[in-house]
Amino acid sequence: MARHLKVSVWRGGADGAFQSFEVPREASQTVLDVVTHIQRALDSTLAYRFACRVGMCGSCAMMVNGVPRWTCRTHVDKVARSGFLEIAPLKNLPVIRDLVADMREFFDKWARAKGEFRGHATRKDDFAKVRPDSAPRVQADAGIECIGCAVCYAACDVVSWNPQYLGPAALNRAWTLIKDERDRETLERLRAVAGDAGCHACHSHVSCTERCPKQLSPTAAIAGLKREVTKAVLHGDL
Amino acid sequence: MTFRGEARLWIAQRASAAVLALCVAVHLVTIVYAVRSGLTAAEILQRTRGSIAWFAFYSLFVLAVTVHAPIGLRSVLSEWLGWRGRSRDFALLLFAAFLGWTGMRAVLGVFA
Amino acid sequence: MRQHPSYWAFVVHRVSGIALALFLPLHFWALGNALHLDSFLAWTQQPLVKLGEWLIVVALAAHLGGGLRVLALEFLPWRNWQKSLAAAAAAFALAVGLAFALAL
Questions:
Q1: E strand spans, A12-66
Q2: Which one is predicted more confidently, C37 or A79?
Q3: For the complex shown, is ipTM > 0.95?
């Protein structure tokens, strides 16, 4: 194993450039370890995000050799082709500086897709009794572990091609709420996710599902949204 | 276009796709058969002219294509050429009419 | 983001769709001149035309295969085998292409 990695890191804003560093190679090294080393030992002006560094928070998501990944969960051995790494901020989002992407648009779209639970019960009502093995609950459970890391958003080509597209995470969230029997806003949600900016723009590239670090399937959720919208349109509800 | 309209376009696209799946399957089998049998133009036309069943089948085929192709191109135009809005949709409507006209002209030429 | 089967299935599906949309008006126009079909058929014996016809048949089969994949993903309950649909679509297109090539 070569002693050093050649690492190309994005610096600056949208009109920035890649800067090269040489980083000592270690056993069991992750890409986050590499970025950390650069900032601590080589260039303290490097800006990047991380928090838990153990694969729970999603903050360290970046483009590694053109693929969006959680850098704390990406071993260098797995991705360094001939000892070379290219690290850039998440795709499809504006760059604040260096490896830090501006996540506002991602969360704005989440809100536009009505990603907020709306129940109608009060403290005077009894608890909702939801069977965990009921079909809607099983479908909702398949998507609720999303932590909003934007890896799927960065992986999606339709997001690149269609600036209004809500994206896989926001649509997946909408689906989990529609499948939540306590929620009463289904028609409003379907109206929010239908159309060219919503579920109908998905062409099933399945990149989101392929890259999701939590193995969720926004593709399946979006397919579900398409079916629900179709039913609502054919019944004249939409 | 409203989200309702766009949802309807999606439904029309999938419905016409289902129709075309059948039509294309039949068409491919027919064409491969005709080519392998080495049929001449006269022989082909002898079998097709005056056939109401084939006329109906290919008219349905043309109708499905007239719906399916323009809606398919709609995404390509917006995503790869950045062409959105009314002008794009109007151009596609013209393309649909053009397909319908040339298609029925062909159907009449071969099956009438 | 690009090196997985479903993405290639999409690209083939879209490119074949564009090719078909461009080809169909020509196809319809030629058939509309069916009265002169014999002289037209003679023209179609040229190698370049035969190659073009073969490409169109493969495009049609590829587009159908890709379309069936999309319909399965969108309307059938989610299963892992759906990832293999891209391969199935490709295999189908190839089979049809071979059948047609053998017939040419």
A1: 17-24, 61-64
A2: A79
A3: no
